[in-house]
Amino acid sequence: MQRDGAFRKSFVSAAARLNCMQQKQTQRDESLKKLESRHKKVTELKNNDYDGLMITPKDDSVLLEGYLYKRSHNTFKTWKRRYFMIKENQLHCHKRSKGS
After folding, report:
1. Has residue 8 got a pLDDT over 80?
2. Residue 18 exposure: Cα atoms within 13 Å on the Cβ side
3. How many CB atoms lie within 10 A of CB 65?
4. CA atoms of 54 and 63, how far apart (whole Å)
5. Cβ atoms of residues 84 and 68 within 8 Å
6. Lowest CB count within 10 Å: 2, 11, 31, 63, which one?
7. What residues have CB less than 8 Å from 86, skipping those under 6 apart?
8. Residue 8: φ, ψ to 5°
9. With contact defined as beta carbons under 8 Å apart, do 85 and 65 qualify?
10. Confidence (pTM)
11. Following DSSP, what letter does each residue of 42-68 receive, concatenated?
């Protein structure tokens, strides 16, 4: 009789672990889908015409400025939209343009 109870307990424990692993896999799959959709957006932008993306520089010292996608260094490697400008031979990166 005790063996039966121990078997049930280990079976329930194994089922709980399996359920937890399935939930984690589902979360990983959802994260991967998000990353793939962001990568698709970046690829589409890369293949399209950039005429609408470039902003006329407001300052004479700014050579070029506009929004680009930057890949983050965290574990998820997400793509973030950032405002870049080349000013006085230096590349500057900001979360958004000064005017926004």
Report:
1. no
2. 6
3. 20
4. 11
5. yes
6. 2
7. 62, 63, 64, 65, 92
8. -60, -45
9. yes
10. 0.40
11. HHHHHHS--TTTB---SSTTEEEEEEE
